[in-house]
Structure formats: C-alpha cells, structure tokens
Design brief:
binds NADP nicotinamide-adenine-dinucleotide phosphate; alpha/beta; single chain; globular; 334 residues; seven-stranded mixed sheet; 15 strands; 9 helices
Length: 334
C-alpha cells in the first residue's frame, strides 16, 4: 500500500495574479486519474518549471498545482498491467507539471502512454540529470544527424551553453565526435564548458558580431539553439552551405527576423524541436541513445542535487539565466 499522503511543492494563486510557493502535504486521492501511480525518487528543474512555479502564463492554467515536468521513480500500481510494480520508469512532458500534478511531489499518477521504462545504462538519478533538457538535446542532435551533419563537416554552435539543454548538448555532441563551439553569457564558466568537451568557448555577444546583413560568413555545420531572437537569426545567417539549425527555446526572444536567403542560397534547414508532444517511438529512441553511446561521461558534473525545500531558491536563479547545468531534485530526501 502506498502512503496516503505525501510531500509536494504547492503553488497557490492569491488573486489578483500573485503566486506563492510552499512545501506542503497532498493526498494520493487528489491526484488525477491515470493508469500508473509512480513513487517519484528524483525530478529536475527546467526553465518551464520556473515559469509554472511563478505563475507565468502558458504553463499551469489552474492553481493550486504541483509543478515538475520531469519525474523518475518506481511504479507503485499499474491498472492496465503495462508496468510491473517496482519497475523503474521515467515520465516527462505531455501535461505533467502543467495541469497534471508533477514531479515536485513524491507521487504522480499518469496515463501509461506517458511512461518510458528506464533504459538499461541509466540510473534514476542520471535520468533526471538529463530530464526534459537532455531529451530535448537528444532530439536536436538526432535531427542534425538525421539531416546528414557529420563530425568532419565542421563546427557545431551550441547557444545558452551553460544551461540545461545547452550543457547536455555540448557533452553529447562532444561524445559523438563533433567539434563544439559553446556560446555563453558566463565567461567564468569557460573551464566547465571545456570539461564537458567543448572545443572552443565564445561570448554570447560574439555570435551577433556582423549580423546586420542577410547573410554572414559561413561558419557552422550545425546549430543547437535555445535562445531564439537575434541569436538564432545570426546562427542561421552564418550556417554553412547545406547545414542544419535546430531550435527549441525562447530565453532570448520568441521573435525571429531573417530573410529567406540562407534557405534558398545556402540550402540551410531550420528545424523546430518539441519534446512535449514528441511521439513515443522517437522519444524512446532518444532515451536509449542517451543511456548508451551518447551518455555523457560528465553527467555527474552537470547535475547538482537539491531537496524540495531548497528548490524555490533554484527557481529564482534559473529565471535569471544563472543556473549552470542541471538541478536534480531528490524527493526521497525531501
Ligand atoms: N521545445 C522544447 O520541447 C523544449 C524543451 C526544453 C527546453 N526548451 C526551451 O529551451 C530553453 C532553454 O531551456 P533550459 O531548461 O536549458 O533553460 P536554462 O537551464 O535556464 O538555460 C538557458 C540558458 O540560456 C542562456 N540565457 C539565458 N537568458 C538569456 C538571454 N536573455 N539571452 C541569451 N541567452 C540567455 C543562459 O546560458 P549562458 O549563460 O551559458 O548563455 C542560460 O543558462 C527554454 O526557452 C525552454 O523553454 C524547449
């Protein structure tokens, strides 16, 4: 029998449009319907969780709610028999941590169609060092590979490189043999990025130098971009003939102002990446790669652990672009 009550982060709305975070007690009975009840061992902090926890629009529509778009733990009950009790599983994205109580609580209940069995080669903790950020980085790199970008083709630019998606992208690309140039706003984290396998580190602003014309000097064979806006535009303009640019984020801006010239004169491809509704087949394939040939040797140095009680501080930091790597939430110690 699972515990009837558990500890969770609870975000409440104090109208009008004011939100507060507290650590409190919730009951299993109030979890939404779903086939699989999971005891969460680890979760992790993503940019989107910080938006959800501070009441910013577009993530949670009804409060009070427990955020956390990532969870890894053991199956407690599975009413359709797909998963055996005790089995280790990962649940990320779909509606988790949005209007479905999320991984910042010690239990979640979700449809069995959202569940990924933990692939061999990963521990539950390692799966949350990766989390949605790692899955997204994996999907972006899979897209570059699928578009024919190979290590000898040249440098790959990773923007927002010290962040969650960025740091894992740097480490996975380096592991896969690519020459990675990490663009960051944190000059002090140069050694960290080199330790992940970056071949070079440039300042965030360097990406934008000479970016006014519709085309820039060709440099990148491929791009992993989390920033959007002028950074993504400059990356597209400086991608080499036939190269591919993947974009998943908007930490800089949701807007993109480019001409069609990079696409029609250089055959550059721009590929949007979504991890939320990503179908199960590519999702599982990405997790399996991340657990084996793409598994970064530096996972331990990318992930830093905290408890639910410490999480609000980390949420404030990620909103300021200040987190390095990934914050793993230990629910067993919370
Ligand atoms: N499409 C999807 O499925 C999907 C999945 C996951 C994440 N995302 C999106 O990807 C983005 C990154 O997520 P994350 O979890 O990696 O966030 P994160 O850990 O906060 O990393 C973002 C990084 O971007 C850089 N940055 C922050 N503010 C910036 C600004 N104003 N201009 C330029 N760079 C800035 C910082 O790195 P440096 O200091 O090193 O520059 C920061 O650490 C978010 O927009 C998130 O919503 C999308």
């Amino acid at each position: 029998m699972p515990a009837q009550h558990f500890t969770a982060m609870i975000v409440e709305e104090t109208p009008p449009h004011s939100y507060s975070i507290r650590i409190g007690t919730r009951s299993i009975a109030e979890l939404p319907p779903g086939e699989v009840l999971v005891k969460v061992h680890y979760s992790s902090l993503n940019w989107k969780d910080a938006l959800a926890a501070t009441g910013q629009p577009g993530v949670i529509s009804k409060y009070p709610q427990t955020p956390g778009i990532d969870a890894a733990g053991e199956v407690v009950e599975c009413t359709d028999g797909t998963y055996r009790p005790g089995g280790p599983v990962i649940v990320t994205s779909y509606d988790l941590g949005m209007d479905t109580s999320g991984g910042f609580g010690q239990y979640i209940r979700v449809p069995s169609s959202w569940v990924v069995p933990l692939p061999p080669g990963l521990s539950l903790r390692e799966s949350m060092v990766l989390g949605t950020a790692g899955l997204t980085a994996g999907l972006m790199i899979g897209k570059l590979v699928g578009n024919g970008v190979k290590p000898p083709d040249g440098e790959i630019l990773v923007t927002g490189a010290t962040g969650g998606v960025g740091s894992i992208a740097v480490a996975v690309l380096a592991k896969a043999g690519y020459q990675v140039i990490a663009a960051t706003g944190k000059a002090s984290e140069r050694d960290f990025l080199l330790s992940l396998g970056a071949a070079g580190v440039i300042g965030r602003d360097e990406v934008l130098v000479g970016a006014d014309p519709p085309l820039m000097k060709e440099r990148w064979a491929g791009v992993v971009d989390v920033v959007g806006g002028d950074t993504l535009a400059a990356a597209i303009k400086s991608t080499r003939y036939g190269g591919s640019v993947t974009c998943c984020g908007l930490v800089g801006s949701i807007h993109l102002a480019v001409s069609v010239l990079p696409f029609i004169l250089r055959g550059v491809s721009l590929c949007g990446i979504d991890s939320v509704r990503c179908p199960m087949e590519p999702r599982r394939a990405a997790w399996e790669k991340l657990a084996s040939e793409w598994k970064p040797d530096s996972l331990d140095s990318i992930g830093r652990e905290c408890t639910l009680q410490d999480l609000e501080k980390e949420i404030r930091t990620i909103l300021k672009g200040g987190v390095r790597g990934r914050v793993v939430v230990n629910l067993l110690k919370s």
